[in-house]
Design goal:
With 355 residues, the protein is of the alpha/beta class. 44% of the residues lie in helices and 11% in strands. Strands 1-4-5-6-7-8-9 form a 7-stranded parallel beta sheet. A two-stranded antiparallel ribbon has the order 2-3. The radius of gyration is 19 Å and the shape is globular.
Length: 355
């Protein structure tokens, strides 16, 4: 059976009543739950130690290493959820796309997709392609117990941007040129990536992930009209395809203040907000029926403890009227962040919001 034909999974009973999942479902919580994007990563010395000499993509394919890295911030920071350690290009690598993650650069694609013939690089993803994901999540759910595990994937637009540009970009000129100049090819590319992303998320959910987050990291480069016409349909296809599992679906992008309503419209249960828009304004843009996630500026963690607490109170005060709130940074943890600052932040949010 392929991942696209998978049956509905059961919600893991051990995690169902966790503060994180309750907040995602907009239910009363004992405290505001906290987790951090990139919490498992370069800010932790224990991460750097176990990754030493292991290339990034290889580290994502070693189940025991993935489990160890995923668990490190849970042990250290007492966060309310773990996020599966991987990279958004893992499913592309798994289906044979010739790419690598270059240190200091990011994902680099050997043969960028520029023509219809190039779409042949993108075959369907099967669970067998990523058997290491199933194995790693099995290890993790046994260790995590009542702590939820968040699965994740890159959204079709962000994956397409890497594939068309051939690597990271500040302007996305090749991707946008295809989107504007050959809309049929663009739509077919995103539709194929939606199927690959869906399959990758289904593998994670069926293995035991309690929630999933779709990262549309570069969607903030788009005007709302372009997002609605050329991106939203593919993201909505992903969210709709995993809706039957009943796990919360989170949607996040950077610089997406003008797109928050559309990102919620795509089908997310929780909309991630970066630090540029206060949460009380974000809820107006997103509309009712969604929880919000965010949104402390990651650079605040380089300030004094008193300053971190003051800025954290601003976030919590702005979130006071929300139906559901998951505390997070407005983007990922920066590599040079002091891990102790993160630990203190978790404790502060738990204490300050305890009911």
């Amino acid at each position: 059976m392929s991942a696209n034909d998978a049956p509905r999974a059961q919600q893991p009973s051990a995690t169902y009543d966790s503060a994180f999942l309750k907040a995602c479902r907009r239910e009363p919580v004992p405290h505001t739950p906290v987790w951090f994007m990139r919490q498992a990563g370069r800010s932790l010395p224990e991460y750097r130690k176990v990754r030493e000499g292991v290339p990034m993509l290889e580290s994502c394919m070693r189940p025991e290493l993935v489990a160890e890295i995923t668990l490190q911030p849970v042990r250290r920071h007492d966060v309310d959820a773990a996020i599966y350690f991987s990279d958004i290009v893992v499913p592309l690598k798994a289906i044979g796309v010739d790419l690598d993650i270059k240190p200091g650069v990011g994902p680099v694609v050997e043969r960028p997709i520029r023509t219809r013939a190039d779409l042949a690089q993108l075959r369907d993803l099967t669970p067998e392609d990523v058997s290491y994901v199933t194995e790693a999540i099995g290890l993790l759910t046994r260790e995590l117990g009542a702590t939820p595990l968040i699965g994740f994937a890159g959204a079709p637009f962000t994956l397409a941007s890497y594939l068309v540009e051939g690597g990271p970009s500040r302007t996305y000129e090749n991707a946008k040129a295809m989107m504007y100049g050959d809309p049929e090819l663009w739509a077919d590319l995103l539709d194929r990536l939606a199927d690959i992303t869906t399959a990758f998320l289904k593998v994670q959910i069926e293995a035991g992930a309690s929630a999933v987050q779709l990262f549309d990291s570069w969607a903030g480069a788009l005007a709302p009209v372009d997002y609605r016409r050329s991106v939203l349909p593919a993201s909505a296809k992903v969210f709709d395809a995993v809706a039957g599992y009943g796990v919360p679906r989170i949607h996040f992008g950077v610089g997406t203040g003008e797109l928050l309503g559309l990102m919620g419209e795509a089908g997310a249960d929780v909309v991630g907000v970066d630090w540029r828009v206060p949460l009380d304004e974000a809820v107006r843009r997103v509309g009712p029926g969604k929880a919000l996630q965010g949104n402390l500026d990651p650079t605040v963690l380089f300030a004094t403890t008193e300053a971190v607490e003051a800025k954290t109170r601003e976030v919590l005060d702005a979130a006071a009227g929300l139906e559901g709130h998951v505390f997070n940074l407005g983007h990922g943890v920066m590599p040079s962040t002091d891990p102790d600052a993160l630990t203190r932040l978790v404790e502060y949010v738990h204490t300050h919001t305890g009911r």
